[in-house]
Amino acid sequence: SWRKPLSLGLLILILATLFIKRARKYGLVISHIYAIIVGLLSYALFTTYLQNLGAEVFYKNIILAIGAFIAFGIVGYFLIKDASSMGKYLFVTLIALIIA
């Protein structure tokens, strides 16, 4: 019941820091608030997924995500020398993933 108001509060805080210049002055405090809110939301999300999926499937998904992150990091570090020209393709891919 507290996840929706906290998510809405995080969205308002992010939008406020984008549009209010004075909020940039308190960047360190705001970044700590972001970390606390994202941590609380992640905890709630992980416990919900753990209850719905079961421990085995949940941990397999976590290991898969960590493995993919490491694999793509290695590919990006060793094989792609200049990724600046890939921005427009990666942005379209990001939008497609968000919609999916």
Describe the model.
By secondary structure, the protein is mainly α. The chain contains 4 helices and no strands. It has helices at residues 3-19, 27-53, 55-78, 87-99. Helix 1 (3-19) runs antiparallel to helix 2 (27-53) and helix 2 packs across helix 3. The protein is extended, with a radius of gyration of 18 Å. The model has no long low-confidence stretch (mean pLDDT 84).
Question: What is this structure's SSE topology?
Answer:
Blueprint: H1 3-19, H2 27-53, H3 55-78, H4 87-99
Helix pairs in contact: 1-2, 2-3
Spans of at least 5 consecutive residues whose pLDDT stays below 50 are none
Helix content: over 70%
**Spatial extent as radius of gyration:** 18 Å
Report, as a whole number of angstroms, the end-to-end distance: 26 Å
The SS-based structural class is mainly alpha
Let me know the average pLDDT: 84
What's the helix-strand series?
A: HHHH
Secondary structure tally: strands: 0
Strand content: under 5%
